[in-house]
Design brief:
Belongs to the pseudouridine synthase RsuA family. With 240 residues, the protein is α+β, with helices and mostly antiparallel strands. Helices cover 22% and strands 30% of the residues. Strand 5 and strand 6 form a beta hairpin.
């Protein structure tokens, strides 16, 4: 059983708030009867209609994309730039990205039409781990890693302790490769953290989202999540 306005939102009728407005206006019927009160639950067997037009309930779908550089992590872009959704032209369902990656950041990003799971995965309280591989300017020392692990003050807030390690130091090019695992998802967080310790990011890739990676996927390629992976994600947010 699911709340009526949630079912309507998932079907693309309107947002939850917009769906509640339609319900209050008496435009929604469940099994042929007008419903105007909030809190009504409906099952898969119930027929829901808006303005006497039955709504179709989308099957939940889940995809993993290896996002290339120069792509917007959004369903639409007013500037007409390519978005992550543009990689799925044959998908009829309305899907959207789970969280965001910067325009120039590559790697793991999930897309789905499961609003509930999206909210759980992106909510700060669920603390889903995200691992990044960053090429940075300068030769990173253990002192910088320690600062990253302890947490940094960024734009008025202190980042939570992270996991960090040096993968490679290239003295000739004056660059380093660093792996950084965080639980938060604030805008430009990884870039800001590394800049704070004196190492601006030159390239950034999200190597891992929870337990999911882009293994076997070239840049711009995607695959559907397996049932056990979806269940594992749901189990993960329920355990946190």
């Amino acid at each position: 059983m699911e709340r009526l306005q949630k079912v309507m939102a998932h079907a693309g009728i309107a947002s939850r708030r917009g769906s509640e407005k339609l319900i209050k206006e008496g435009r929604v019927k469940v099994n042929g009867k007008v419903v105007t009160e909030m809190g009504v639950n409906v099952s898969k067997d119930d027929t829901v209609s808006v303005d006497d037009i039955p709504i179709s309930r989308e099957q939940k779908i889940y995809y993993l994309l290896n996002k290339p550089r120069g792509v917007i992590s959004s369903a639409h872009d007013p500037k007409g730039r390519k978005t992550v959704v543009d990689f799925f032209p044959e998908i009829e369902e309305r899907i959207y990205p789970v969280g965001r990656l910067d325009y120039d950041t590559t790697g793991v990003i999930l897309l789905t039409n499961d609003g509930e799971l999206t909210n759980q995965l992106t909510h700060p309280s669920f603390e889903v781990e995200k691992t990044y591989i960053a090429k940075v300017t300068g030769l990173v020392h253990k002192s910088a890693i320690k600062k990253l692990e302890e947490g940094l003050t960024l734009d008025g807030y202190k980042s939570r302790p992270a996991k960090a390690r040096i993968i490679e130091v290239n003295k000739r090019n004056n660059t380093s490769i660093v792996e950084l695992t965080i639980h938060e998802g604030k805008k430009h967080q990884v870039k800001n953290m590394l800049k704070k310790v004196g190492h601006p990011v030159e390239k950034l890739n999200r190597d891992k989202y929870a337990f999911l990676t882009t293994e076997g996927l070239q840049s711009g390629e995607w695959r559907e999540l397996k049932t056990f992976e979806v269940n594992k994600l749901k189990q993960l947010v329920n355990e946190i």
